[in-house]
Amino acid sequence: MTAITSKGFGKKIIIGGFIFLTVQYLSYLCIALFARDKPTEHELVGLLDKGPIGLQISVNSKFLQEAKVFDLILWNTMTGGLDRYGFNISHTKIKKFIGLPGVFNTFTTSLVVKRVYTFFVVIFHTREDNFWWHGPLYNDESNTGNSARAKPISDNLQFMRREGAIPRFELEEIKLFHYNFVLPKDIPAFLRATSGSAADFIECNYRAAEIFYRHYNRDTSEEAERFRHQAWKLLSRAKRILNDLEVPFWLSSGTCLGYLRQCDFIPYSQDVDLGVFASDYKEEIIPAFVSHGFELHHTFGILNDSYQIAFKYGKIKLDVFFFYLDQEKGTIWNGGTEARSGRKFKYTFPAFSLCWTEFLDLLVRVPCNTTKYIEANYGPNWQTPVTKWSWKSSPPNSEPNGVWPKDIWSKVINIRGV
Ligand SMILES: *[C@@H]1O[C@H](CO)[C@@H](O)[C@H](O)[C@H]1NC(C)=O
Ligand SMILES: *[C@@H]1O[C@H](CO)[C@@H](O)[C@H](O)[C@H]1NC(C)=O
Ligand SMILES: *[C@@H]1O[C@H](CO)[C@@H](O)[C@H](O)[C@H]1NC(C)=O
């Protein structure tokens, strides 16, 4: 199962049938591989001599159930295997409270394995919706041994320092030093997905959701269940369409509130709300939704001002709000339009960045400080359910923003649906 060569290069470690073995200075190596077909062995030795070798293994494990089994059996086997070859190993584990109803699970997120070289092993756990999740490489509290502790890794492996999510990518075997290594097939895409904060991941707060549901019963009426089911289908489709167009989006308004408060849709909200930066707008958006069975309901505003698109999918409405960066104020805003009067509204948010999260088994983005975003939109009492909500006057971050001139109404108030 485990084979380690005498110089400390992992030949191949196979767990659950997936291998993803790569070296420290991954970015350099990837760039080298990208810039030319293959770096020479000489170049690689030069690269490797500059620092420790990193090693990543992807594990095809069903996140909730199998990680536990994997933890107990496979890791022991592998650790034993490595031990026999004279490696010192230190494990990093993370304890997570996941799911509704929630359970505690402990996941091994990384290893530091040391003999001649230091190997950093980041474990990629397969999660629902076909993405790979990894924990932080360093986590002092849960480190189970320090004999192999290493200095924090270099900046180009930033993505390993925090929890991260990477949409699943294809792997490709390459031969180096007569051994097969596995690297991402599309290296530039891999680098984009892992550079800077692009992979940052936050977990839904299932503990808070449980407490919420202890106070407010979960609506399990047929109507509510039907809404949840249809909203999920809608979101899943919308996500696929926008992903295919490479348009990043996040859960906004009521959908984001439901995520933050109860890790679920809010049945009485009756729609699904997404945010998109206007700068990521693509002309293909409307045609793509329409060709996937969505009905265009309305568009309000123009691309540079208060733009929004609404679709109908079955009985549910999908609102796509476009957001604008106010560079001077360091804020982000979106607009609303009252169709009957042409009145405009502006909703202002503190600047935010986006994080991946898992929402009802779907990999989607939310503003990283979701609480801050929701507080801006719903006020400090967002935890209390409110069924009477006016999108014009209720949000504390709402302000009147003038009126569309009558002569452009036909352009900025465009209602198709009924
Ligand atoms: C492994 O750990 C032992 C005990 O802490 C230490 O004596 C030994 O030098 C370590 N070996 C390596 C290769 O770090
Ligand atoms: C949007 O563009 C129009 C010209 O096409 C311009 O008159 C208007 O001021 C712009 N609005 C904003 C909010 O930048
Ligand atoms: C997120 O925002 C909330 C509310 O504004 C604040 O209390 C909290 O400290 C922020 N969290 C982080 C990690 O910045």
Automatic annotation (TrEMBL):
Keywords in alphabetical order: Membrane, Transmembrane, Transmembrane helix
Transmembrane segments: 12-35
GO-annotated cellular components: membrane
Gene Ontology annotations of biological process type: glycoprotein metabolic process
Primary localization: membrane
The keyword Transmembrane belongs to this UniProt entry's keyword annotation: yes
Chain ranges of the LicD/FKTN/FKRP nucleotidyltransferase domain: 246-282
Membrane protein topology class: Single-pass membrane protein
Keyword Nucleotide-binding appears in the UniProt entry: no
Residue ranges annotated for the Ribitol-5-phosphate transferase FKTN N-terminal domain, each copy included: 115-231
Subcellular location: Membrane
Protein name in the entry: Fukutin
Organism: Frankliniella fusca
